[in-house]
Design a protein that fits this description.
This protein has six helices and 27 strands. It has 487 residues and is α+β, with helices and mostly antiparallel strands. It folds into four domains: 10-95; 99-177, Alpha-Beta Plaits (2-Layer Sandwich); 189-364, Collagenase (Catalytic Domain); 402-486, Immunoglobulin-like.
């Protein structure tokens, strides 16, 4: 296939698409693809997954890759007529303004939005455009570079999205409208860069003959900032949270180089994957999209910044971050729905939201017919009138429950049985909402009772770390870990 490139910067489609371009707002199929004048930011779709060599060749030709878009496409940037001669190109085209507007905006009531610029666009450029269209820009430290929190007239969003510098607009979560610290996620990684915020998850891991996706996980390196047994338990719990709702299994097996294995690594600075960490308080972690488009052995791997102050049950909460990153490991991008685990900014969570569960089931199919009730609705944001001060919410309950494990009485026990009964007590200044258990082998469940609780926990041969956690209604938690050796 050849493209006719003219001074008018026009590309002609010469044959049908082999794969679609999956956006959150629509799917671009062959019949919907039209000849069009390319903007400075435009999509290039290839016949096969772009590789690091593809990206290097594009950049050698003066074409910058700013994001990955499934299937087999990249968002590119060029201020000149792009030279695509000899490349394995299927189609090129632009994002329409409507592609940059989140479907969730229709349900947004706060009048506050998260404006995302393309990776190569400087923040002052977006600031100028937003202010010219009547939007008030909120000064929020800790935002991801290229992100702005804006408030203003909803009727001007389409005109804002029409600017080439703008990548995507979605509702601002309540967390973005208060004075609490913010830490954002850069998104899942591919050989062609980070997943674009406008892109929709299209394909995860390929299922086996039984319809299930069987993955392994292995710890490549750990961090001394969290006790080892508790760390392994929290990471296994994060993976198991996704596995309980969709046709996915995780097993603690394999080596970091084994196929279909999530290698979990704590690392500092440059650590060999081309995406160096930047020290405390910035990029917490990153994960690699499944194969394809990533190749083995890095497909699905999860890296966490060893320089962060990792904790359990408080910021920076290991489970909350790992739960978000595990979504990327399974092939999910960021959701636009505030309150979801996969929203672009991390928050302290105790489990998946209905939006997260629906997304993973859409990708892999449903394992359980019943969806648990969702969390309470988050508070609304500021009034839509720009410039009006944002009132922070009242101080939240920060007191964790007090948890005691009565049986077994020791932190290390042995047994020959296939299960063990755990029991104890939990008290809180307001009230204990739930007591849950998880194991380092990926099993989890909810104990019977709260103030006085008990749980029957299954065990495999060998060592199993059982973590018991008590939660109050505000999401505060306390935990105890017991190591069980089954002979």
């Amino acid at each position: 296939m050849r493209f006719l490139l003219t001074a008018g910067f026009v590309c002609l489609l010469a044959q049908p698409l082999a794969a679609a371009v999956h956006l959150k707002a629509r799917t671009i199929e062959a019949l919907s693809a039209r000849s069009e004048k390319l903007n400075h930011h435009f999509i290039i779709q290839f016949r096969s997954a772009p590789t690091p060599e593809t990206r290097a060749e594009l950049e050698r030709r003066g074409i910058r890759v700013v994001a990955y878009v499934p299937d087999n496409a990249v968002m590119a940037s060029s201020h000149a007529v792009p030279d695509l001669e000899g490349l394995d190109v299927e189609w090129t085209g632009n994002l329409a303004p409507s592609d940059k507007l989140s479907p969730e905006l229709s349900a947004a009531a706060s009048g506050a939005y998260l404006l995302m610029l393309h990776e190569d666009v400087a923040r002052p450029a977006g600031l100028k455009i937003a202010q010219r269209l009547g939007f008030f820009v909120l000064d929020r430290p800790g935002l991801v570079p290229g992100h702005l929190v804006i408030a203003g007239p909803a009727q001007n969003l389409a005109e804002l999205a029409a600017h080439d510098e703008v990548a995507y607009i979605l509702p601002a979560s309540p967390d973005l409208l208060t004075d609490q610290p913010l830490i954002g996620c850069v998104g899942s990684l591919t050989p062609a860069g980070r997943m674009g915020p406008y892109a929709a998850a299209a394909q995860g891991w390929i299922a086996a003959a039984d319809g299930m996706v069987h993955l392994n996980f292995v710890f490549e390196t750990l961090t001394p900032k969290v006790e080892e047994n508790a760390l392994r338990s929290e990471m296994g719990r994060a993976l198991g949270e996704w596995a309980q709702y969709a046709n996915v299994t995780f097993s603690a097996a394999g080596t970091p180089s084994s196929p279909r294995t999530v290698a979990i690594r704590f690392a500092s600075g440059e650590h060999g994957d081309g995406f160096p960490f930047d020290g405390p308080g910035k990029v917490l972690a990153h994960s690699f999209y499944p194969a394809p488009p990533n190749s083995e052995p890095i497909a699905g791997d999860m890296h966490l910044d060893a320089d962060e102050d990792w904790r359990i049950g408080a910021n920076i909460d290991l489970f909350s971050v790992a739960l978000h990153e595990a979504g990327h490991t399974l092939g999910l991008g960021h959701t636009d729905k505030p309150g979801s685990v996969m929203y672009p900014y991390y928050r302290l969570v105790t489990g998946l939201s209905p939006d997260d569960i629906a997304a993973i089931r859409n990708l892999y199919g449903s394992k359980a017919p019943v969806t648990p009730p969702g969390p309470a609705q988050p508070p609304t944001g500021p009034p839509s009138a720009p410039g009006k001060p944002i009132e922070p919410p009242p101080a939240a309950d920060r007191t964790p429950p007090s948890l005691r494990v009565v049986s077994p009485a020791s932190s290390i026990v042995s047994t020959t049985s296939g299960s063990m009964t755990f029991s104890g007590t939990a008290v809180d200044n307001v009230g204990v909402a739930a007591v849950r258990w998880s194991t380092s082998t990926g099993k989890s469940g909810t104990a019977s009772g709260t103030t006085n609780w008990s749980a029957e926990v299954p065990l495999l041969i060998g060592d199993t770390v059982v973590t018991i956690r008590a939660y109050d209604a505000a999401g505060n938690s306390a935990w105890k870990a017991i190591t069980v050796v089954r002979h």
